[in-house]
Amino acid sequence: MSTHIITYPEINGYLANAKEILGSKAQKDGNEYRDIKYVQMAAGTAYSATLMIVDEYLRSREGDKFAKPKRIEDYRSRLRKYNKTLLSYLNEAYDTTITYLMFIKKPERIYLRFFYD
């Protein structure tokens, strides 16, 4: 089994990419984004960075026994044992990107609430 250590610059790169996608492609108009496709892409990219952070934390705690979680419930149950603050951050990121990334279609525009500016 090969081990791949994710460096902080890699995680920071994911977050920078998410911000760049929103800034250059999502067509922000005030507090609203007009292009849902790019908002969803940015949300997925930022959420991937969140999971990388949690993976690194779990890897540091579990050492050789670390196996990448496959479901959000697996992440939650393992973080519940080690770090409830990080669990809270994961839940917030999950709720924001998965549950609360809601949009309402209006004529010729899509209005969004999004966590990342």
What would you note in describing this structure?
The chain is mostly helical. 62% of the residues lie in helices and 10% in strands. The protein is built from four helices and four strands. A two-stranded antiparallel ribbon has the order 1-2. Strands 3-4 form a two-stranded antiparallel ribbon. Strand 1 and strand 2 form a beta hairpin. Helix 1 packs antiparallel against helix 2 (36-62), helix 2 runs antiparallel to helix 4 and helix 3 (72-82) packs antiparallel against helix 4 (84-99). It is elongated, with a radius of gyration of 16 Å.
Supply the key terms:
two-stranded antiparallel ribbon; mainly alpha; about 10% strand; about 120 residues; 4 strands; elongated; disordered C terminus
Largest sheet: 2 strands, antiparallel
Q: Name the average pLDDT.
A: 82
H/E series, N to C?
HEEHHHEE
Q: What is the CA-atom radius of gyration, in angstroms?
A: 16 Å
Number of helices: 4
**Secondary-structure content class:** mainly alpha
Low-confidence stretches: 104-117
Give the terminus-to-terminus CA distance.
38 Å
Strand order of the largest sheet: 1-2
Overall helicity: 55-70%
